[in-house]
UniProtKB/TrEMBL annotation:
This is Type IV pilus secretin PilQ. GO terms for cellular component: cell outer membrane. It comes from candidate division WOR-3 bacterium. Belongs to the bacterial secretin family. PilQ subfamily. Keywords: Cell outer membrane, Membrane, Signal, Transmembrane, Transport. InterPro entries: GspD-like_N0, GspD/PilQ, NolW-like, NolW-like_sf, Pilus_4_PilQ, Secretin/TonB_short_N, T2SS/T3SS_dom, T2SS_GspD_CS.
Length: 497
């Protein structure tokens, strides 16, 4: 078998042939034909191979092939008119010849700038690695257990890839330490790595313990402890001083460097977000005129924007809520108060609740507006018991301030109201929505879709005559007026600088 190494500066081909017998003595031979200037031959008794160094006038393409036990190299130059020159050496006859291929000398690569071609058949792995190491200039060490045969063919690849490929083929690996490649089985290298790391850890534990106090300005010490504790060694200790919001850490100096870097990254100012919420009962026509941009993308999932599951308990009465959870945005946040006040004067809007809260970034805020409804149940003995159930509107809002000062709101909404009195208690009609929406600072998110239909009866007629028994209906009657109202939730977040 043989291995071909190629080099562009100077233009050379190096061929290591294993198990070769040649009648040509070692030395440098002048050729100056077919693009070849000189050929040097050097036998290596320890590796049982001979190296041929072919110096070329310039970069050529070449083809190597095995013909009747000979290795034949043929050089080409596009458009050239020189006669091809062949170099052959007698190799063992029992080795089959691989199919011929055409190589192109490579451009200078990165790393050491060396690429090689390998054509190995049942070659000793130690011989192959030694040949690569000598050509590239590596320091290698082998153990007694290193053995195996390798058969592979690779063309024009970086020497590092060829080095690892040859080792992996026979199940070997290497460890690079202090400029030396030590060849060994992978399991042995892993064992030594474990021992080395264990020794390093044991050596660290012998270092002097240092106690330092880290006073946190923004982060909560008890919460930061969970993160910082992961950096400590087995002998390290950490305590929390709640009075000064500080961490007291005892460990080696290397750990303190890591702790200081971590605390610097997590102990930063936290945004505070003020959330102005309004829960309104509004006329559908008035809502359409408020400039709500519906069909905003619900970041929690795909499909129709704001589409969530809503419903009521079985046996819902007429007038129960419909599908709840449409999401919209109003960009003109500063004008909302004026618009709502105007509609309230026209009796088109009724404010159910207007809570305002402030919450830290990434923290959950809870809002509840409603009432407690009493209902009667009976204990096992049949005695009546009065119990209460909360109904109304529940909001859970979690703001996330993004780098560009946009705000992502995670909104969980539940609207409930009492239904029919049942033998086992009271029916509760519930609608809920889970939504995530992206807003600019000061924009308003609108959650709608909870529609109620109300019927209001009134009597009109001719005064006095419409109230006469029997004939009064001729002069007047009852008029039923249906109205469509919608429960809408407005959420306006503001970043507090």
């Amino acid at each position: 078998s043989y291995t071909i190494f190629s080099r562009e500066v100077p233009s050379q081909l190096l061929i290591d042939v294993q198990g070769v017998k040649t009648e040509i003595s070692s030395g440098i031979y002048t050729v100056y034909a077919g693009g070849i200037t000189t050929i040097s031959i050097e036998p290596f008794e320890t590796g049982n191979f001979i190296r041929f160094v072919i110096n070329l006038e310039k970069t050529f393409s070449y083809k190597d092939e095995r013909v009747n036990g000979n290795i034949v190299l043929t050089f080409y130059e596009t458009g050239g008119n020189f006669k091809a020159v062949s170099l052959s050496g007698r190799a063992p006859s029992e080795i089959e010849a691989p199919p011929p291929t055409v190589h192109a000398l490579p451009a200078p690569p990165p790393s050491r700038g060396i690429r090689i071609s390998l054509n190995l058949e049942n070659a000793d792995i130690v011989t192959v690695i030694k040949a690569i190491a000598e050509y590239v200039g590596l320091n290698v060490v082998f153990g007694e257990e290193i053995k195996g045969k390798v058969t592979l063919r690779a063309e024009n690849i970086p020497w590092e890839q060829a080095f690892e490929l040859a080792l992996r083929t026979v199940g070997l690996s290497y460890l690079y330490e202090n400029g030396v490649y030590r060849i060994a089985p992978p399991e042995k290298i892993r064992e030594e790595e474990i021992k080395r790391k264990r020794s390093e850890e044991e050596a660290k534990l012998l270092e002097p313990q240092i106690t330092r106090v880290y006073v946190l300005q923004y982060a909560v010490a008890d919460e930061a402890k969970k993160t910082v504790q992961k950096l400590l060694t087995s002998k390290g200790q950490i305590e929390v001083d709640e009075r000064t919001n500080a961490l007291i850490i005892t460990d080696i100096g290397e750990v303190h460097e890591k702790v200081a870097s971590l605390i610097k990254s997590i102990d930063t100012p936290v945004y505070q977000v003020a959330i102005d919420s309004r829960i309104l009962e509004i006329n559908r026509g008035a809502l359409d005129q408020m400039g709500v941009q519906w069909n905003v993308k619900n970041l929690r999932g795909t499909g129709v924007a704001g589409e969530v599951t809503g419903g009521a308990s079985p046996g819902a009465m007429p007038g129960a809520p419909t599908l709840f959870g449409q999401v919209g945005i109003i960009s003109r946040g500063a004008l909302i108060d004026n618009v709502i006040s105007m509609y309230e004067q026209r009796k088109l809007v009724k404010t159910i609740s207007n809570p305002k809260i402030s919450v830290l970034n990434n923290q959950k805020a809870r809002i509840h507006g409603g009432s407690r409804i009493p209902y009667i149940t009976r204990d096992p003995a049949g005695n009546p018991i009065v119990q209460f159930v909360d109904v109304g509107i529940r909001l859970e809002v979690t703001p996330h301030v993004n780098v560009n000062k946009q705000i992502t709101l995670d909104i969980n909404t539940e609207v409930s109201e009492p239904g029919a009195q049942l033998p086992g208690g009271i029916e509760i009609l519930t609608n809920y929505a889970n939504t995530r929406v992206l807003l600019n600072n000061g924009e308003t998110a609108v959650i709608g879709g909870l529609i109620k239909y109300k019927t209001q009866s009134s009597r009109e007629g001719v005064p006095f005559l419409s109230r006469i028994p029997l004939i009064g209906r001729l002069f007047g009657g009852n008029i039923a007026e249906e109205s469509e109202r919608e429960i809408v939730i407005f959420l306006t977040p503001h970043i507090i600088e």
